[in-house]
Specification:
heterotrimer, A mainly alpha (332), B mainly alpha (545), C mainly alpha (226), B: 545 residues, mainly alpha, two-stranded antiparallel sheet, 2 strands, 71% helix, disordered C terminus, C: mainly alpha, 2 domains, elongated
């Protein structure tokens, strides 16, 4: 078929498809319902059928070597149709529930080896340091400088009016902002630097374990454990777990490059990353919760120590059982 | 046969040439640089490195080693010609080897080389302009007319290209330093500032080398980007890509004819055609091998100095044509989305607001605006350069003066320093019983302050002696090494050794945060007293058991 | 053949042509976004400074959102484009040409941190220059591409014109060449048109303006006009 005949025959189809594309795009912004879309379809078929028709025309035009401008036009139409057809249409609320009930706990369990390794890399230095400092108190000075140690001491001095980080109650919001920015950024760095063969994540895990352990050990050895544990108890379950997950995700990304198996390195990386995305969403969520608790609950000096500790233990139970028990049903 | 070779290779044109937007053209340039990166880089290094090393050795001898990279940097437009030659060959034929390109360099360097490294050096469209000189052999009025035609579209992008490449060079240089710092473990405490600002010639050489490497890494992208922009502009203006394809059709037709009816007449026509074609691709910048010499005269005639039709008036005419005008606006900046964005608010009203029309008009003028901006920028760059030269002249004024009159002493009028390394060394600022003061500080554990006092006292007294003996006094820009060197002129070996010792102690305390044992400290006190108490430090025979 | 166009096979069995965007435009788009972000943060700082200490909290939250999620929000909600990309006519898509999703956009922007190392986006720049599809590390990890978002093409289906058959058989590419000559003619000067047409003089047997007309008619013939 000559190009002119081809154009004459299908011109109306293309123009109708153009119109329909615009409607589909508009439909997403306004209330998208099937009725509206049906109005736009002059060709009596579903969008995907119309799109396949356009694809067919494009393939023919390519094969027959029609003029470049027609090819460009059809390429453009197909591109836009492709974009509309494959845009994600899932309901956000549904996705969220799906994520909370199934995807997140399942993803954590699927990576249990990495999560376990990351936990060891984080908690071993942490508890090692706590015990070490209990036996040799001056060990603390090998990690922190004297100035840092004295500022830590000042923060958790039981004599001080506000325990934790000194502040007024109206600054809770300010600290919330600070924690979000600080903690989530650290979480992201822990994940992302894993790309250097996992080294970055390794470093952040051990480093955070060591410094947290040093602070804890030093304060316990000074006898400041009540304010410190009272402060950390509430959000610890969320924050520490999130850091471990971040490390696990980072290690996964690093290992995918080091040991790609039968895949090409780049494909192995892309695959690992796409599998880690669920963990990353989870990390963001958990760190948000942690920042909220830390700013509005942990730092509240008027709550009794016993209540804080029991809430903390409760939080750990909730977090652990969430990851152990949830989302079992749909697993095969 | 030579022309055959070209005819065959024309079908193997190595890049997809079609009219693109300027940014897309730049991207194609990057693909070219990527594809031929190795020969491009090697050619650049083969040209630049010897010049750089020679300049460095020469300038290091004159104590001006920092200048060596800047001179190489200044000569960049000349080296870029080699890269452009390589690219223009690579587009149609095989990429020439480094050796072939180097052999051609004298011929490539000759045209307008003075202009390239003087008043045109800071042009912000350098790599875009180079093909006009080198491939079209234009000069003078012709060249500037041609430039103004080509600049109409792609100028903005070519200015951005220059700016980005400059930034990339700086970033790469810093990244090399950053990597070095990152790779050295933190436990090894090194005062990097001290290292990088040191005046030692090895360090200077490394500094220059890093800058040279950064420049070499970026250069292929810069030249290829400009070349691709140039090709693209010609595709728009002259349908240059269509011309190549037409010639390709002819080549095929002639080949078929030759195959089918090998009569000598047709062969002859074909040959001429092909010769014409080979010359049209690109004018041959230099003479390349003896076999081609026979071809060159013909080529020179037909060389597409330019298609004859592209005289300025005709282009003006086309540019004034309505269709072309519309097209250019579209290509410059598509503001449709902006209109849509505002229209979607209330869809009934389709009247363009007045300000939007103004904005569109402004967008149309973008090309002119960017030309103006580039002009202003170039002006500013020249200003900076002139200021820089003035500063250098001032700084090295005594050096220049000594060139003329060798009997002049070095930096005669330099004022004695009062502050060294941020410390006050004037006699008034020091306690009269310095030793006692320092000892009591040392007993209280304030070793740092004590040694600082010694250090200041020593510098103060030595400076006075320098002035007394009308030698060059210390200046606040001196490094510790400079001080020791100056002092060597007036003190005997023992004193110099002691000063060295003191400097080492001070550096360890101040930068390394290493403590001094009390035995060392007492030894220091003794020695200081011997050298400087009563201002009689020059003689030391007097009692040291 | 060096080109910035890449074919993407779709499930429908066609090859979509995407033109990937290189470091130049993307750098400029990034600068535009940086500028916008800077201005917005400055305004927010002024606004929140009225609210005192609590305002500081809001400001840090906004900083955090701008830092990590400004590109993500725009890319997902605004058709793959941040304002800078829109201005430069770029957009982000997955590397199978589907619209960018939350996950891929989040990943490609989180990995910005790696692209920045050791400083000034050097890793990203090197990666862009090494990869034939101009992908930085974030794009590699997320499987995304930055492409030129072609301005909507509207087709001119023009009226009848005289046509003639080609005097020699032409292959598809050659036919396309002649048609693009006729399509691009309006942008060329009359003399240049003749010059181009004269190249084919031995084939079409005419000269100058006649040759141009002949070519246009051949082009019409190729496209099938009568």
């Amino acid at each position: 078929m000559k190009q002119a005949a081809f154009e004459a025959r299908y011109r109306s189809t293309w123009l109708a498809f153009e119109k329909r594309l615009n409607l589909e795009l508009a439909g997403r912004n306004t209330a998208a319902n099937e009725g509206d879309l049906a109005l736009g379809s002059e060709v009596d078929c579903s969008f995907s059928e119309a799109y396949r028709l356009i694809c067919n025309h494009y393939a023919l035009a390519q094969q027959r070597g029609y003029s470049l401008s027609l090819l460009d036009y059809l390429n453009d139409l197909s591109m836009r149709g492709h974009g509309v057809l494959y845009r994600s249409k899932t309901n956000f609320r549904y996705r969220l529930i799906q994520f909370l009930l199934f995807d997140f706990p399942q993803a954590v369990r699927a990576e249990w080896k990495l999560v376990l390794s990351a936990s060891l890399l984080f908690y071993l230095p942490l508890f090692g340091m706590v015990i070490g400092i209990y036996i040799f108190p001056e060990l603390a000075y090998s990690v922190f400088s004297p100035e840092q140690i004295s500022s830590i001491e000042a923060m958790y001095d039981p004599g001080a009016e506000h325990v934790g980080r000194e502040r007024e109650s109206e600054t809770d919001l300010a600290m919330f902002g600070f924690y979000i920015r600080n903690n989530i950024s650290i979480g992201f760095q822990t994940v992302v630097t894993g790309i250097i063969g996992g080294l970055g994540s390794l470093f952040y895990l051990i480093y955070n374990g060591l410094s947290l352990g040093t602070a804890a050990g030093h304060l316990i050895q000074l006898g400041y454990h009540r304010p410190f544990i009272g402060f950390v108890a509430g959000h610890g379950a969320f924050e520490l777990t999130a850091i471990v997950f971040a490390g696990a995700a980072g290690l996964k990304i690093g290992f995918s490059l080091l040991f790609p198996g039968r895949l090409r390195r780049i494909n192995s990386l892309t695959l690992a990353v796409s599998e880690s995305v669920t963990l990353i969403y989870g990390i963001i969520l958990m760190l948000l919760i942690a920042a909220f608790v830390e700013a509005f609950w942990s730092s509240n000096g008027s709550i009794d120590y016993a209540i804080k500790v029991s809430v903390g233990i409760g939080a750990w139970c909730v977090v652990l059982s969430y990851f152990v028990f949830l989302g079992r049903r749909r697993e095969t | 046969m030579f022309s055959w070779g070209v005819a065959v290779k024309l079908e193997h044109i190595n890049a997809e040439i079609r009219p693109r937007s300027s940014w897309e053209a730049l991207d194609l340039g990057i693909q070219m640089a990527r594809a031929w990166y190795k020969p491009l880089f090697l050619t650049w290094v083969a040209m630049g490195l010897p010049v750089f090393v020679l300049l460095f050795l020469l300038l290091n001898y004159l104590d001006l080693s920092w200048l060596s990279f800047w001179l190489v940097w200044w000569l960049k437009p000349l080296f870029e010609r080699g890269l452009l030659h390589l690219l223009s060959r690579g587009l149609f034929e095989q990429v020439p080897s480094v050796k072939q390109t180097l052999r051609l360099m004298p011929g490539l360097l000759k045209p307008q080389w003075i202009a390239a490294i003087t008043w045109r050096r800071l042009s912000l469209t350098r790599s875009f302009d180079l093909p006009i000189l080198q491939l079209e052999n234009l000069k003078g009025r012709e060249r500037s007319d041609r430039l103004s035609t080509l600049h109409r579209e792609s100028m903005g992008v070519s200015v951005w290209l220059t700016a980005f490449c400059l930034l990339a060079e700086i970033a790469v240089a810093f990244a090399i330093y950053g990597l070095v710092i990152m790779l050295v473990p933190r436990e090894i405490e090194i005062d990097w500032w001290q290292v990088f600002s040191s005046d030692h010639w090895v360090m200077n050489g490394l500094d220059n080398l890093v800058a040279f490497i950064a420049a070499s890494l970026i250069a292929p992208f810069y030249v290829a980007g400009g070349f691709s922009l140039y090709i693209n502009r010609r595709s728009h203006l002259e349908a240059w890509d269509v011309e190549i394809r037409f010639r390709k059709i002819m080549a095929r037709v002639e080949r078929n004819n030759l195959k089918n009816s090998p009569s000598s007449g047709v062969k002859h026509i074909a040959l001429i055609l092909l010769l014409g074609m080979s010359a049209t691709i690109f004018p041959i910048g230099g003479v390349e091998g003896s076999e081609k010499e026979a071809v060159t005269p013909l080529a020179r005639e037909q060389v597409l100095q330019l298609p004859q039709s592209i005289s300025k008036q005709q282009i003006e005419a086309v540019l004034k044509g309505e269709l072309f005008h519309e097209l250019t606006v579209e290509q410059q900046l598509d503001l449709d989305w902006l209109i849509e964005f505002f229209e979607s608010e209330d869809e009934e009203e389709t009247v363009d607001p007045e300000w939007l029309k103004t904005l569109m008009a402004w967008a149309e003028n973008l090309a002119e605006l960017s030309a103006l901006l580039a002009g202003v920028l170039e002006f500013i760059l020249w200003g900076i350069l002139i200021v820089f030269v003035l500063i250098v002249l001032r700084k090295y004024s005594d050096w220049f003066a000594r060139l003329i009159n060798t009997s002049l002493p070095r930096r005669k009028q330099e004022k004695p320093a009062v502050f060294m390394f941020g410390m006050d060394i004037s006699a008034q600022s020091l306690p009269s019983n310095l030793i006692e003061e320092a000892r009591s500080l040392g007993e209280r554990g304030l070793l740092r302050q004590a040694v600082s006092l010694f250090y200041r006292g020593a510098l103060s007294q030595l400076n006075d002696r320098l002035i007394e003996q009308s030698k060059v006094p210390l200046s606040s820009s001196d490094t510790e090494g400079d001080c020791v060197r100056k002092i060597t002129a007036i003190a005997d070996q023992e004193l110099v050794l002691f000063v060295n010792d003191l400097v080492a102690h001070w550096q360890r305390l101040a930068y390394g945060h290493l403590e001094l044992s009390s035995i060392e400290f007492h030894a220091l006190c003794e020695a200081w007293a011997q050298h400087f108490e009563n201002g009689a430090g020059v003689k030391i025979e007097a009692g040291f058991e | 053949m060096l080109d910035t166009r890449h074919s993407i096979e779709t499930p429908e069995g066609i090859a979509l042509q995407l033109t990937v965007a290189g470091p130049g435009v993307r750098g400029l788009a990034f600068l535009v976004d940086l500028l916008i972000r800077g201005v917005v943060q400055l305004l927010l700082a002024l606004l929140f400074s009225v609210l005192g200490v609590a305002g500081f909290g809001l400001f840090t939250i906004s900083m955090f959102v701008m830092e990590w999620f400004y590109p993500v929000l725009f890319e997902v909600l605004w058709n793959g484009q941040t304002p800078g990309k829109k201005l430069m006519e770029l957009k982000v898509v997955n590397d199978n040409a589907t619209p960018v999703t939350w996950s891929s956009s989040l990943v490609r922007n989180l990995f910005r941190g790696v692209d920045f190392l050791p400083l000034f986006y050097i890793t990203g720049l090197v990666s862009l220059c090494v990869n034939s599809q101009f992908k930085r590390v974030g794009d590699l990890a997320a499987g995304t591409l930055v492409i030129y978002s072609s301005p909507r093409k509207s087709m001119q289906f023009d009226s009848d014109a005289p046509a003639r058959p080609s005097p020699i058989p032409l292959d598809l590419q050659e036919q396309q060449t002649i048609v693009s000559f006729s399509e691009r003619m309006p942008q060329l000067s009359a003399q240049r048109r003749c010059e181009l047409a004269n190249i084919l003089q031995p084939v079409i047997g005419e000269k100058d303006q006649q040759a141009v007309d002949a070519l246009v008619e051949i082009a019409n013939g190729i496209r099938g006009k009568r």
